[in-house]
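[audit] Reproducing an earlier prediction to check determinism. Same input, same settings, fresh worker. If the tokens differ from the archived copy the diff job will pick it up downstream; this log only records the rerun itself.
[audit] input (122 residues):
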Amino acid sequence: MASKLRQFVVYSKLTILTVIAMAVVIVVFKNRGYKTNFWPGADGDPVSTLWLMLATAVSSIVVFWVLSKTRRVLKELAQVRAEQLFAEHAAEQDRLKKNLDEQERRIDEKLRRAVAGDNPRP
């Protein structure tokens, strides 16, 4: 049963991709003869609409790629900052633990001296 469902999903995806490819071919075929005067730096020379569509598609993909990379870098930056904060917090805790251990050692030493009677009274 699972193989039939998987087969259906695969063929559905293939059908969708085929329909999209056919739509692209139809758009390209229908716009092959159209020209436009709007093009940055073209100075009024007519330019094929296909080049305009291609430039728009490529620039959209590039912008999406740049934004996704920027988002990933910002996410990694936040993780690095969190790790640094955690490391600083751990170092502070370690420093406080050493300080507390030293105080405890001094108190134990004073208690041993007091119990043993080695502590001279002023």
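[audit] rerun output stored. Observation attached for the diff report: Residues 32 and 62 are 24 Å apart (CA to CA).
[audit] end
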